[in-house]
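User: Quick one: structure for sequence A, then sequence B.

Assistant: Sequence A:
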Amino acid sequence: MKSNLDLVNECDSFPYPSSPGLYHAALSGLYTIVHNNGETSTPIGYLSESVFNRLAKVPISIKGELEVSRAKRTVSIFQHPTEEERSKAVAATAAYWRENKIFRVLDGWRSELYPVYGPGNELLWSVERSASPLFGVVTYGIHMTAFVRDEGASYGLKMWVPRRAKSKQTYSGMLDNTVAGGMATGEEPFECLVREADEEASLPADLVRGRATAHGTVTYIYVREQRAGGESGLVQPEVQYVYDLELPRDVEPKPKDGEVEEFYLWTIEEVQDAMAKGEFKPNCSMLVLDFFIRHGILTPENEQDFEEINRRIHRDLEFPGPHSDSR
């Protein structure tokens, strides 16, 4: 059975500077992507050694100039004058890799664009969703927990928990948060929530707009493993915008777009049992822990690792982006 800290370790799996041996060992196998604006050099992502080697082999006519400092282990790439030009170079690079079947992670091509931000939180470039882990850039999503009040249940509530469809390319058949999805370039978190709530759970837009409440972000750095699909070991910093939705007892989420197999209305004890058995998608466990803390279910009195858990589900990320505004 997994402890709550085990669940955090499984998702927030990139070492911290406070563990210098592990941290420097991890960095020694990576190149940091930096964006140079003429005045400052800002880190925006991590490249593994294997991705760096493949990037170096992409023709300059496709990717543009590549500047490398092997001493500092930094890479400057996609330095074109405009966002449009930079995004085109990124798209051409990802397409080149896909056409030549370089990386398995691109087998999950989504034709969705994710944003990458610069030092002033400006949009630097966009990248195909499935290619984002190759560049180790921060990605953004929304996660919502729907619940109902129930005086007969522990803590006075029950949670709606979906099981991912067995046909999904990643984490098939695992448990998830009620509604979750990635944010595309130009999409605001709340509008993403409204869209995903309809697509995944058949929840009406007016209900979500009227009842959903925002609760900050959950942040972590995940090192991808086999269940994520494609190559293991890719570094994936993530920011999830957090929402709660108290539903009336006569409203039930229902699968719509095929990504969810079914929804369960579970007690806190049932959710905790499934978490301990490792049935939740790793990052979804982080969101559940955040929900438990905010609702007084997980406290310093009943969790010996409370302080570490609470700190690590809100990890400081060194890369720029809108998340830095809420630190």
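Sequence B:
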Amino acid sequence: VDAELNAIKGGGAAHLREKLVANASKKLVLIADYRKDSTALGEKWNKGVPVEVSPLAWRTIKRQLERLVPTSRAQGSLQSMDPSFELAHPVAELRQAVRKAGPVVTDNGNFILDVSLGKIHNAVAVEQLIKMTPGVIEVGIFSGMASEAWFGNEDGSIVCRVPQSPEQDQRK
């Protein structure tokens, strides 16, 4: 969870369903422990952004995602040319199942690519860029959706945060 309450979700390969529920909700509140509290996405979480993809095209999507550069933009985007993410060359890995042979298959029958980008400087731009790749079903970046986040600290205390930017606080 970054300073604007953008989050990476999908470790359990259910982020499409989680995003559908979040989108339908009146208010999204994130609850996490202190290890997920950061100023930028990718600062503490180094397992990449989960991307649900069509099994039919996962190899092609993997190659396309690995060709992205930090200044890539979604077609027609008017965003600045500042780097959206840290790594010069993203790495996309097909998530493998732990107790069975082969890739993880989502409840929707799709595969998951974990895309390592390093620190994410512009979560909205990265989410849009990945989502525009043909064959991508959903991206595990939840940008501009949460209105507050609660973090449990190691000492048992609890901290509540809201987005740092005033314009980000105009959520559902």
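The two ends are 18 Å apart (CA to CA). Residues 15-24 form the longest helix (10 residues).

User: Thanks, that's what I needed.
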